[in-house]
């Protein structure tokens, strides 16, 4: 048995870990309790192990007041058995509590709550999960922050229980706390909490002995006692909770005039204000109603109803209601495999409440509103053809021909195609390269600002419409969107931002990731620019920097004029990549102060790209994914993050595994100039958790820990090969590879067992390599070293975007690099305009040296890395050729090896201009 677990307070700073750490501690207490019960009576060993139980129980107890289960009764019983020396009873109770916590049985089974002290607990209404459409009677906890005497809390609980009605759709158990600090702590660590009731008059300071609680609150919620006025405790707590977990319903019970309070700005985040305990039943119903709002899935609910109605179908879609399937002689297995419901839920009708995705007025409209609320946007639209199409819709909605878009060259191809479709001119900017791993990072803010200022110098600033970036990147680079937008808006106050958050939709649901999301930043900046404090800060800055020229502005933190600035932010996300939606389920989120200008074009773009037969199941799954995140997104995203942090730590500190494998740390993935905090890895010993949170909030880039770049080159595997081994030998699927790494990501579905499986695979492989090297002697060793060297050090340079050929430039001499890609793209439609040169031909060498310039006719996109090495109209330079020659991947879109590079013939371009299409 290992030694006593860390005291709970040391774990406290690890926000992500609190809930998991608690389960671990209960598991450990269970092991001690068994050992105590098994130890021979009367021995020193027995007393010693009892001492350990006492110490660990005391540690656990420090935070237990944050949860309803196991609760005071069970804990009191436990202490009773411990002090009374009844090891058997103690072990039995610990076993029960620990098992119920691990399995979640306390949500469903009243027996889990029973202490045997008195038989009449009846805390939970058990209901088999197959009743009620498969979810049973979902359980949650309500936090009650109250000035009342703790001796009264048990009675209050019993009262709540008496209010339950059989027809209630959900059930809850209250958790009482007596102070601001305890409430904030409970909201952070207890993921079962869905609603908070604030009873005016509670105190600020916790009575519990939690020395680092204050620091913790300051870091995570930005509150300390000094900053809260005694009269404003309730509203301040409501705001702090709302900032941390915006999905929670807040209720206030107050003696003050509730009418006045309800209308005040401070109380805007409070769902309802009641006059002190006037109507306990009203409060009960309001609590349930709040859950119902999040639980309701308007589209899915209706689809279920629709599927059970007897309907004769005379519209298209023969499989609707399974008719062509179950009656078939040849394809009945389709029905068996997919089940009846999916066929019963198929229809091509837009009546029967199914609504139309193209002109929503009913369920789909409601679903969009719920999505916007859940994801913190002003508006939300649903995509049924992946973010590939969502990006094209947004690009086409916000750009017209001739507009300049400052865009990461490295972004998903849908953006590039979006430019072709809209006629917008891309100004390609480069992410910082991570040559050692053959990948790109993200685009530095300075690069983006320089592009803006270049356009300004050319007199083209008015044409720059959009900044288009990927957040986070495939490999986990998270931008600091607040900072990027603020400094860009200081140069042009009405810029539109498109943040492709394909991987990052989940990020809304915990405060650490949320700070780095587009919508989180839009909300934060809106608040900031409306504040008096900002106006003062801005005026001071303006005075100080009156004669700052553009060169100086490049390196200064510019501030936008609060009277001119517009918040115009678009986000797209592949809901299917990070949440429980079917493949291709995607969302477009909007926060645009000038939506009036975009609404019409957005509709056009939506019509242009959206099928008139969108998949109903896919829409329903978007509805469900939203429900899940609004009710358990906090718990799930905290867990996936904690799991990732553990994986990282385990791999990098494992004596055997770390010989051959390594997870890239923030220090590896982000150059120091973009990591101002200097933080090198997550948490101790690399800095405190508080340092990590600080870095996460402030550094130019931070690394999302859930995206784990596992370097396999030092084990002699290239990325593709390693991906194959993991899949074939260990049943582990991973996503992306580079020359010497693979990307492992944790998701809301991952468990400890998944993590264990990966660790085991790495340990097995490391052992194999050890053995092979031992037995193979000198020759084997030399071959291995050479292989590692080729993978880890002889990596090709990544080619930057060269430039558009002059014929596609409005001003060939401009220092900004935008070009008109659309005509180049369409030139290639006419075979007479094109020619091929083979990569290995003499001609390539000659033309690189003597011209005429080789100009790409196509997008050429190798997978990996998955971004265009060439775009239509781009001049092909020597680095690109070198890169292509070294490239050892099979899938290269837009390139046929046998034919060679497809070029636009020089004579088609000579003396011509395809620039202005405006
Ligand atoms: C996957 C991805 C897309 C495309 O999304 P789909 O839902 O697969 O169509 C767009 N952008 C980025 C950054 C992606 O990773």
What does this 3D model show about the protein?
- The chain has 34 helices and 24 strands.
- With 918 residues, it is α/β, with parallel strands linked by helices.
- The chain has six domains: 12-113; 137-295, Rossmann fold (3-Layer(aba) Sandwich), CATH 3.40.50; 298-344, no CATH class; 378-627, Type I PLP-dependent aspartate aminotransferase-like (Major domain) (Aspartate Aminotransferase, domain 2); 631-792, Aspartate Aminotransferase, domain 1, CATH 3.90.1150.10; 806-909, Ornithine Decarboxylase, Chain A, domain 4, CATH 3.90.100.
- Strands 6-15-14-13-11-7-8 form a seven-stranded mixed beta sheet, with helices on both faces. It has a five-stranded parallel beta sheet with strand order 2-1-3-4-5, sandwiched between helices.
- Strand 1 (139-145), helix 6 (153-163) and strand 2 form a beta-alpha-beta unit.
- Helix 15 (363-375) runs parallel beside helix 26 (616-653) and helix 26 (616-653) crosses helix 30.
- The longest helix is centred in the last third of the chain and has 41 residues, at 752-792.
- The protein starts with 7 loop residues before the first helix and ends in a 9-residue tail after the last helix.
- Residues 1-11 have low confidence and may be disordered.
- Bound molecules: pyridoxal-5'-phosphate (PLP).
- Pyridoxal-5'-phosphate binds next to helix 16.
Low-confidence stretches: 1-11
Bound molecules: pyridoxal-5'-phosphate
Shape: globular
Total of DSSP H or I helical runs spanning 4+ residues: 34
**The CATH topology of the largest domain:** Aspartate Aminotransferase, domain 2
Strand segment tally: 24
- Rg, rounded, reads 30 Å
CATH class of the largest domain: Alpha Beta
Sheet with most strands: 7 strands, mixed
Return the CATH architecture of the largest domain: 3-Layer(aba) Sandwich
Give the structural class.
Answer: alpha/beta
Number of domains: 6
Organism: Noviluteimonas lactosilytica
Protein name: Orn/Lys/Arg decarboxylases family 1 pyridoxal-P attachment site domain-containing protein
Domain Orn/Lys/Arg decarboxylases family 1 pyridoxal-P attachment site: 297-521, 566-745
Cofactor: pyridoxal 5'-phosphate
């Amino acid at each position: 048995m290992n030694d006593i677990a860390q005291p709970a307070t040391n774990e406290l700073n690890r926000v992500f870990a609190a809930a998991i750490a608690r389960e671990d501690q209960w598991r450990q207490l269970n092991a001690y309790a068994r050992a105590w019960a098994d130890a021979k009576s009367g021995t020193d060993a027995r007393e010693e192990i009892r001492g350990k139980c006492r110490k660990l129980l005391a540690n656990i107890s420090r935070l237990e007041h944050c949860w309803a289960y196991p609760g005071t009764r069970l804990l009191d019983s436990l202490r009773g058995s411990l002090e009374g020396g009844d090891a058997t009873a103690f072990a039995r109770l610990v076993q029960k509590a620990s098992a119920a916590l691990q399995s979640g049985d306390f949500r469903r089974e009243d027996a889990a709550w029973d202490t045997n002290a008195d038989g009449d607990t009846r805390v939970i209404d058990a209901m088999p999960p197959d009743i009620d459409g498969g979810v049973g009677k979902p359980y949650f906890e309500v936090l009650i922050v109250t000035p009342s005497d703790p001796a009264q809390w048990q009675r209050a609980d019993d009262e709540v229980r008496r209010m339950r009605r059989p027809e209630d759709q959900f059930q809850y158990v209250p958790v009482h706390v007596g102070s601001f600090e305890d409430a904030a702590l409970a909201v952070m660590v207890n993921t079962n909490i869905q609603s908070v009731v604030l009873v005016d008059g509670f105190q600020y300071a916790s009575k519990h002995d939690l020395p680092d609680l204050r620091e913790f609150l300051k870091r995570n919620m930005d509150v300390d006692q000094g900053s809260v006025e005694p009269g404003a405790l309730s509203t301040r707590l409501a705001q702090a909770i709302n900032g941390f977990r915006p999905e929670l319903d807040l209720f206030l019970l107050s003696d003050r005039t509730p009418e006045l309070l309800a209308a005040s700005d401070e109380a805007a985040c409070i769902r309802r204000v009641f006059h002190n305990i006037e109507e306990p039943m009203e409060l009960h119903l309001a609590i349930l109603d709040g859950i119902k709002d999040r639980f309701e899935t308007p589209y899915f609910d209706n689809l279920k109803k629709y599927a059970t109605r007897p309907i004769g179908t005379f519209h298209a879609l023969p499989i609707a209601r399974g008719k062509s399937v179950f009656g078939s002689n040849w394809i009945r297995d389709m029905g068996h495999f997919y089940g009846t419901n999916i066929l019963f839920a198929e229809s091509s009708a837009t009546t029967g409440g199914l609504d139309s995705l193209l002109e929503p007025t009913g369920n789909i409209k409601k679903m969009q509103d719920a999505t916007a609320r859940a994801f913190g946007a002003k508006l939300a639209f649903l995509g049924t053809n992946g973010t590939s199409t969502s990006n094209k819709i947004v690009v086409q909605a916000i750009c017209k021909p001739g507009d300049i878009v400052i865009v990461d060259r490295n972004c998903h191809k849908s953006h590039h195609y979006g430019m072709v479709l809209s006629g917008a001119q891309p100004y390609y900017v480069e992410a910082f390269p991570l040559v050692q791993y053959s990948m790109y990072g993200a685009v530095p803010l300075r690069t983006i600002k320089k592009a803006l200022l270049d356009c300004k110098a050319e007199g083209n600033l008015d044409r720059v419409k959009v900044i288009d970036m990927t957040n986070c990147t495939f490999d986990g680079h998270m931008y600091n969107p607040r900072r990027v937008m603020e400094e860009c808006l200081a140069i042009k106050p009405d810029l539109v931002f498109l943040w492709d958050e394909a991987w990052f939709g989940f990020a809304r649901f915990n405060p650490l990731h949320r700070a780095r999301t587009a919508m989180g930043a839009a909300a934060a900046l809106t608040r900031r620019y409306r504040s008096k404090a900002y106006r003062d800060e801005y005026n001071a800055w303006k005075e100080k920097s009156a004669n700052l020229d553009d060169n100086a502005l490049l390196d200064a933190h510019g501030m936008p004029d609060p009277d001119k600035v517009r918040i115009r932010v678009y986000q797209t996300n592949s809901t299917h990549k990070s949440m429980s939606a079917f493949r291709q389920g995607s969302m477009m989120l909007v926060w645009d102060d000038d939506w009036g200008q975009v609404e019409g074009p957005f509709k056009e773009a939506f019509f242009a790209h959206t099928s008139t037969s969108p998949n109903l199941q896919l829409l329903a799954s978007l509805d469900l994914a939203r429900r899940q995140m609004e009710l358990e997104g906090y718990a799930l995203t905290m867990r996936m993050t904690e799991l990732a942090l553990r994986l990282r730590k385990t791999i990098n500190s494992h004596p055997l595994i770390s010989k051959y494998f390594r997870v890239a740390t923030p220090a590896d993935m982000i150059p120091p100039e973009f990591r101002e905090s200097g933080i090198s890895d997550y948490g101790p010993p690399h800095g405190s958790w508080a340092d990590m949170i600080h870095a996460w909030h402030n550094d130019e880039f931070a690394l999302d820990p859930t995206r784990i770049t596992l370097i396999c080159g030092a084990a002699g595997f290239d990325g593709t090969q390693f991906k194959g081994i993991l899949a074939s030998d260990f049943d582990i699927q991973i996503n992306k590879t580079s020359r010497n790494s693979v990307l492992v990501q944790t998701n809301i579905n991952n468990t400890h067992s998944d993590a264990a499986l990966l660790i085991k695979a790495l340990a097995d492989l490391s052992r194999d390599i050890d053995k092979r090297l031992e037995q193979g002697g000198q020759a084997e060793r030399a071959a291995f070293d050479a292989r590692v060297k080729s993978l880890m050090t002889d990596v090709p340079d990544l080619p930057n975007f060269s430039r558009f050929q002059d014929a596609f430039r409005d001003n060939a001499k401009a220092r900004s690099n935008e070009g008109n890609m659309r005509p180049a793209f369409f030139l290639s439609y006419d075979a007479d305009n094109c020619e091929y040169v083979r990569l290995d031909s003499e001609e390539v060498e000659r033309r690189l040296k003597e011209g005429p310039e080789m100009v790409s006719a196509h997008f050429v996109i190798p997978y990996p890395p998955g971004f265009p090495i060439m775009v239509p109209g781009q001049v092909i330079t020597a680095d690109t050729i070198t890169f292509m020659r070294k490239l050892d991947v099979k899938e290269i879109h837009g390139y046929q090896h046998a034919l060679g590079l497809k070029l636009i013939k020089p004579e088609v371009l000579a003396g011509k201009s395809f620039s202005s299409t405006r």
